[in-house]
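Final report, closing paragraph on structural work. Over the funding period we assembled a curated collection of sequence-structure pairs, and we close with a single example.
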Amino acid sequence: MPGAFGPRCAGVKGHISGIVLNAKGRPVAGAIVEGVCIQRWTIIFPPPGFEIVDCSTKSDANGRFAFTASRKLDELDVHTPDFGMTGRLVHVFQEGNIIRVSP
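Its predicted structure, as stored:
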């Protein structure tokens, strides 16, 4: 559990962009991308963690996404509308994020 015994590293905020690709490297259109920030100190006893979805968008026809995060993001979570494919990126940059999704 990241951050279980201390503070997490600061993430990034502001303009965030990237692309969503499937396992074969093809763009995924309509994937829901969520910018997530996690509380600075993770609680060891229930509740076991605290995640806040700061921003959300859908990828375009070419798999690209962009949004503006008001909080520092720790990760990007993505899923198709039917949750058939999911993915997560834990090292978020302002540009050039590549998120791979798979079943």
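Confidence is low (pLDDT under 50) at residues 1-8. Residues 12-100 form a domain with the Immunoglobulin-like fold (CATH 2.60.40.1120). We thank the funder for supporting this effort.
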